[in-house]
Amino acid sequence: MAEPFLIGDAMTGGYGGADILHSCTIAVNPGEIAVIVGPNGAGKSTAMKAVFGMLSLRSGAVRLKGEDITALTPQARVAKGMAFVPQTANIFTSMTVEENLEMGAFLRRDDIKTTMEQVYTLFPILRDKRYQAAGELSGGQRQQVAVGRALMTQPSVLMLDEPTAGVSPIVMDELFDRIIEVARTGISILMVEQNARQALEIADKGYVLVQGANRFTDTGQALLADPDVRKSFLGG
Amino acid sequence: MDILNALVAFLNFVFIPGVAYGAQLALGALGATLIYSILRFSNFAHGDTMAIGTVFVILLTWGMQGMGISFGPLPTALLALPFGIVLTAILLLATDRVVYRYYRRVKAAPVILVMASLGVMFILNGVTRFIIGTSDISFTDGERFIMTAGDFRESTGLAEGLAIRTTQGVTLVVAIIAVGLLFWFLQKTRTGKSMRAFSDNEDLALLSGINPDRVVAVTWIVAAALATTAGTLYGLDKGFSPFTYFQLLLPIFAAAIVGGLGSPIGAIAGGFVIAFSEVMVTYAWKKVVTYLLPDSMAPSGLIQLMSTDYKFAVSFLILIIVLLVMPTGLFKGKSI
Amino acid sequence: MSGAQMTSQAAAAGPARGLLLAAFVAALFIATGMFQSWTLALLIVNMALISSIMALGVNIQWGYAGLFSVGTMGFVALGGLSVVLVSSAPAPGGWSAGGTGIVLGLAMGAATIAAAVMAASKMAPGRRRTVIVAAILIIGFFLFRAVFDPAVQAVEANNPATHGNLGGLGLPVLLAWPVGGLLAAAAAWAIGKAALGLRSDYLAIATLGIAEIILAVLKNEDWMARGVKNVISLPRPVPYEVDLQRTQGFVDWALSWGFDPVTASSIVVRLMYTGLFAVVLLALIALSQAALHSPWGRMMRAIRDNEVSAEAMGKDVTRRHLQVFILGSAVIGIAGAMMTTLDGQLTPGSYSPLRFTFLVWVMVIVGGSGNNWGSVLGGFLIWWLWVMVEPIGNWLMVVITSGMADGWLKGHLINSAAHMRLLTMGVILLLVLRFAPKGLLPER
């Protein structure tokens, strides 16, 4: 099998103390949506942060397009085309929506107008609120700003840490629709989700983590159909 | 009843000095608030930064005067100011390199940075005294008045005079230019926006590829410009002495906190709030009141709320009230 | 951070290292005595003892609880004020001139503030409350001024060349020491109520302010302690040198040991002060050590090390901080009273924040924050340096400029040597903070 576009391969490590991840493997291909689910404390967010270089690995590797990026800082990974949307504090609250997008494109020296147009097309509400301070927006709109900011670097991989935490079910569906749209443009999406069932429905690939290790890995639909997964992780 | 004369007396003794002092405090508070919002500590060396920046300007002014350069009716110090800013910026960048950078690298608690700024304060204070001594220095030259009290009386026929000193006019004009430049820089330029982003959310700024070292360096340069300008204007207006500048620390921080620590607009508003309170509380209102009341009710005392010796108490009281009532300040600073 | 490992290292290195450093500092003082003079050495020792107590007070605030207060100068000055108020003789005619008016005025001022605070806490927030509180304060202020001002004028007009104040109670001067502590504690309570529980920087700025204001009051309220006209010849807890020289027994004793009676008298007097100060220092250290190792001290340090988790465990952090802030300030106030007693006069013009606030901070940081003995070591070492840097700087400048032609630069450099102190202290503070942040004697 060919090497996936982005792979965190057999990652083991933690935040200095005991290991949280145990030989955990996460991979995603262009245009795919990969979802990491699992019980609380399973190391879902940690796995994602490891892929993004926010903790150092004791063993294992992260490769992007076959290139080993294990030693790169998160900032350097941004330059390589990875974008990360943290779970909280993911916008500049005191700045306008448009300035948030501009800051997302900080590393780019070319014209960012087209990308900004694309973001506004994807999230039309942001166009209406472009001159408003991002901190004044609703929860769902803030998440759109956060995703929009990340898209401004024209990334090849978009990583989302629980994008639907704290938003209403309607907004969640709306956000998932947008995420599918983003994936259709050829961007790989890697996301951690609490709402396992809904997330697996849109997932091309699902990773069920337990205690920092891969428990089940399959397509989203297959996992949803798997009685073991249903029983243990999806509440029957 | 003589409303016109009362108004003129008010303008002359309260409003104009208050505006000039407020502008000087606002510039000082802007520098302190900027350092706080980017570097996340209260810089106790800020007063002494203003002092040493002013010392550079004074030395350059003397040099220019020695070479026969003058700025016509305006103080020569204004010509020296840009060079003074450059020197101060170099000094602050060097300080950052030698002192503060290490604590950022090890992610020290803010209070450790404050402590380090105490050390820097000592050194800058020592260097200032070393270079220029401890005596009061007046370094203003050019025309002394834009309008003298006598001219005003002559042209209006009023009993009260209204004098506007050149240094007061210069303070206001320079402060407006400086604040305008600062806001243009913060709102419109890429670097300025990146500073605001860094101040707002450091982690996200890093994720967006904003270079923290660059942001910090630019912050010191801007702080140097603001501190040197504030110090020079204050010195032109009221004379230079090292200890006074150290004492300015209290009204400057009071202004920054009253406005909301970390908020540039707040720093300006706070500067004027503090300055006007100080001037109004320590001004003897006898003259103004005498004009307003009929002769039979003329006041016998000075009608002064507090003696000028307690002017620091005014900024302090306002500070305490703000801390008690709204700790985030008038313009919602970054944190409480 | 591997806290346990560091603590054990410090404990192992502790006693030996402490003794070595203490011996080194002692050697500095002995050398000063031998090469300069014993009176000078004792003078430095006495101020070093007082500085140690000040450092102890700051260490209680910073080392135990992590409170960053820069109001030391104000509390020292309050201690000084207490000496005048307690021990100096009542000024003849002072009380009759306007004593009651002043007391009444102050009582009215206090009542106004109390009424405003009560109104603010009892009434529901809103415009009504704001208006009423403001009205109480404004009316109260003018009433206060109406009663207070004429009384003050009358008192200050009473023989202004020598008095012009109310004078003190004429009580024994040693009583002023605990009173100084109480005055400082009261001021600390007021300021702590307002500034604690907010960001740490706010306490720093508020205390910086209160110190300036206390000093302004001291300088300008002549009726209290004659302002910048100073109060001199305060009573002493020890005999005067001249009296000793006139006592036959003392002169005989001095001569029998082969001492010059004049030198001997000043040395004996200074030694008496040394004894008094040492007793206070040791008592305070014993109390501080006991407090530090009591459950209360452990809780303080737990709060300092992790405020959030201490708060989550139900500790009232702000209240504890207020306690420790008051205690530390009281210790500083005691030291301030001791200093004024040693000087025999109160000179408000001589208080400067660089000398009293920030220098004491250097002592604490250099000595080792959190360690009481570190504060003592820092107090002795830094005070010795503070005194000695100037002559050393002078000498250095003379050496440096010896090759220069006489002229402006040479004169300027030699004159500037006086400012070496600030520079040196700043450099020491930065070096210790950077390379030995735990100080010479780390916390155990």
TrEMBL record, chain A:
SMART domains listed in its UniProt record: AAA (SM00382)
Lineage, highest ranks first: Bacteria, Pseudomonadati, Pseudomonadota, Alphaproteobacteria, Rhodobacterales
Entry keyword set: Amino-acid transport, ATP-binding, Nucleotide-binding, Transport
Pfam family, one: ABC_tran
Protein name stated in the entry: ABC transporter ATP-binding protein
InterPro entries found in the cross-reference section: AAA+_ATPase, ABC_transporter-like_ATP-bd, BCAA_Transport_ATP-bd_LivF, P-loop_NTPase
GO MF, one annotated term: ATP binding
Entry similarity comment: Belongs to the ABC transporter superfamily.
Limits of the ABC transporter domain: 5-236
TrEMBL record, chain B:
Highest taxon above the source species: Bacteria
One Pfam family matching this protein: BPD_transp_2
InterPro entries linked to this entry: ABC_transp_permease, BCAA_transport_permease
Coiled-coil residue spans: none
Compartments, as annotated in UniProt: Cell membrane
Listed transmembrane segments: 6-39, 51-71, 77-99, 111-132, 162-186, 215-236, 248-276, 312-331
Family stated for the protein in its record: Belongs to the binding-protein-dependent transport system permease family. LivHM subfamily.
Name assigned to this protein: Branched-chain amino acid ABC transporter permease
Keywords noted in UniProt: Amino-acid transport, Cell inner membrane, Cell membrane, Membrane, Transmembrane, Transmembrane helix, Transport
Membrane topology: Multi-pass membrane protein
CDD domains, per the entry: TM_PBP1_LivH_like
Record bears the keyword ATP-binding: no
